[in-house]
Amino acid sequence: MKKFRGVFFTGCFLFVFNLVSNAQCAMCRGAVESTVAAGDTSMASNLNLGIMYLFVAPYLLFGVIGYFWYRTSKKNGKKIKAFGHTIG
User: Which residues of 67-87 are buried (b: 16+ CB within 10 A; e: fewer)?
Assistant: First the structure.
């Protein structure tokens, strides 16, 4: 419980005291601004799609790993319970 509390307070601290930063490099920002000013919005939408892909990929990966970990631990728990009932 203490470990969970520490992780919770660390997450709250990082959420409350976050720093504002520019998310794009100067080259990407300049390229997007020049293409949008010229009337072409496809590059901006493609850049946003790429950012969303990079945002979702780690969460999806951790979700899949977590699912398999949960499934494996559930199977091992059933084996341990079954083994315990045959002995005792």
Answer: eeeeeeeeeeeeeeeeeeeee
Longest dimension (CA), the chain: 78
Residue 8 φ/ψ region, left for φ over 0, alpha for ψ in the -120 to 50 degree band, beta for the rest: alpha
What is the rounded distance in angstroms from the CA atom of residue 52 to the CA atom of residue 57?
9
Q: Give residue-wise pLDDT tens across range 3-45.
A: 778 888 887 777 777 665 555 677 877 888 888 888 888 888 8
| pTM flag (> 0.90) | no
Q: Closest Cα partner for 50 from 71, 24, 16?
A: 24
